[in-house]
Structure formats: C-alpha cells, structure tokens
Amino acid sequence: MKSKRVLVVSDFHCGHLVGLTPPGFDADREPQRHREFYDMRRTIWRWFKRTVSRLSPIDILIVNGDAIDGKGPASGGTEQLYMDRKDQSDMATSIIKTIDAKKIVMSYGTPYHSGKDEDWEDIVAYNVGAEKIGGEDVIDVSGLVINYRHHVGRSTIPHGRFTPIAKEMLWNLLWAERGEYPKADVLIRSHVHYHVAAQTSEWLAMTTPALQGYGTKYGGRRMSGTVDIGVVVFDVTSRGEYTWNPVILRLNEQRPILL
C-alpha cells in the first residue's frame, strides 16, 4: 500500500515583524533598528520554501492555528508589519497555496490573534479550499486517527513540557472510553512554539514547532525557555505503520554584539 504524506504546520503569525512572510508581502518597512527582523523573515522564508519543496508532494496538510497575528493590542500594534487582518489573511493564503497540498484541513487559533468576535481564519480556509476548519477535530489517514487542535497549556520548566500533552491524551482516552469521541492514535497540539513528544506503544502526542521567528516582546520580556521553528511530517501506510519526523530550523541570528 502506498503511504500518504501528512505535513503539519502552525503559528505563521502573518503580519508580525517575525511572522512567516512571503516575499510578495515583504519589504524593508521597519525602522533601521528593526533591520534584524527583516533579515530573519527572509532566512525563515527561504528555509520554509526549500523544506516544502523537499517534502513534496503533500497528500494532507494540517494548518493548526494562529495563521495570522491580529492587531497586536498588547503591544499597541508596535510589532505589526501589517495591521490589517485582510492583508494578514492574504499572506496566510499565499503561504498555504505555496505548499500545494492535495487536501487541507485547518484549526482555529487563539482569539487574541485570529479574532475575539470573528474568525478571520475562516477567510483563509475559504481562500485555500480547505475541507474543514474547527476547534478540535480528527482525520483518518489510512486507518491512523489524528486528533488536532491549536491550543494547549504550556510549562516553564523543561521536564514539565510533556505533562500538558500527556493530559490532553488522557482526556481523549476518557472521552473515547465513554464512547463519545474517537480514540486518537496521534494527538497534535501547537500554540506553545516548542516541539516535544510523548509516546507509548498505544499512542503518540506532541506539540508542534512554530513558523514565527524569535524576537516578540512577549517572549523576550516575559517568557523563559527554548523556541522551535519548523514543521512535522508523517508518512502513513496504515494505523500500525507510520513514521514521523520534526524538521527544525536553528537560527544563528541572535548572536551577541560586542560594543
């Protein structure tokens, strides 16, 4: 049986200074003090384009939330490359079309980014012809049941990062035990911008890397911990026969400068 390739991407944060930005939407728009963000965007985009090309063809694409960054109210919009969410939605549309997957499914991101009173990612889903977009959902890939949702809790200690996804998996097993929701073989969450995975002989649970770069005010001033930039790819032949691999970009953009 021929295997199917599944690509999982998340957290473009289109419109942010270090969001994933297609060249047609990019320019050196920022003041000189933000020059490093322009360079970072170009580095990430070039890596992303090469990676997608190398992994193609893609049978199923999961876009797991926070495709756009929103207005950035917490920073007064000072971190936005594009403030207009229509522009941001157009950017996300361009990115997804670049991947050129045969089938696309999506999840909603956090209300802070994608709309508290509306869902701008609906526009992106419509533009790219996604088969569905929702909160928590499942797809069956050659018998392998994949459960995906954007949001998950985070931890500020390295060994604690595995607890939230194990908890998510346990809740899924309890729902399935009641006969009210499909039991997942693979559970995927995003949102936290780091990649970890927990696996047993029965299931696999993970958080995905993001496609937003380093340098947000929230991350730089309030958060501790490592960040991962990248995607996750699966090759699925059957429920009992699949492989998966994170493809991670390591940046050297944040070198200290001696004065």
What's a concise summary of this model?
The protein is 27% helix and 23% strand. It has 259 residues and is α/β, with parallel strands linked by helices.
Helix content: 25-40%
Estimate the strand proportion: 15-25%
CATH arch. level architecture = 4-Layer Sandwich
Spans of at least 5 consecutive residues whose pLDDT stays below 50 are none
Q: What kind of sheet is the major sheet? A: 6 strands, mixed
What radius of gyration results from the CA coordinates? 18 Å
Helices and strands: which structural class?
Answer: alpha/beta
**CATH C-level label:** Alpha Beta
Total strands: 11
Biggest sheet: strands side by side, in what order? 4-3-2-1-10-11
- Mean pLDDT across all residues, rounded? 92
Order of helices and strands: EHEHEHHEEEHEEEHEE
Distance between the termini: 60 Å
Shape: globular
Name given to the CATH homologous superfamily: Metallo-dependent phosphatases
CATH topology: Purple Acid Phosphatase, chain A, domain 2
Total domains: 1
Spell out the blueprint of helices and strands.
Blueprint: E1 4-9, H1 35-55, E2 60-64, H2 85-99, E3 103-107, H3 111-114, H4 121-128, E4 132-134, E5 137-141, E6 144-148, H5 162-177, E7 186-189, E8 196-199, E9 204-207, H6 217-222, E10 229-238, E11 241-249
Parallel strand pairs: 1-2, 2-3, 3-4, 6-7, 7-9
Antiparallel strand pairs: 1-10, 5-6, 8-9, 10-11
Helix pairs in contact: 2-4
Can you tell me about this structure?
With 259 residues, the protein is of the alpha/beta class. It has a single domain (4-249), classed as Purple Acid Phosphatase, chain A, domain 2 (4-Layer Sandwich), CATH 3.60.21.10. 27% of the residues lie in helices and 23% in strands. It is built from six helices and eleven strands. A six-stranded mixed β-sheet has the order 4-3-2-1-10-11, with helices on one face. The protein has a five-stranded mixed β-sheet with strand order 5-6-7-9-8, with helices on one face. Helix 2 (85-99) packs parallel to helix 4 (121-128). The radius of gyration is 18 Å and the shape is globular. The mean pLDDT is 92.
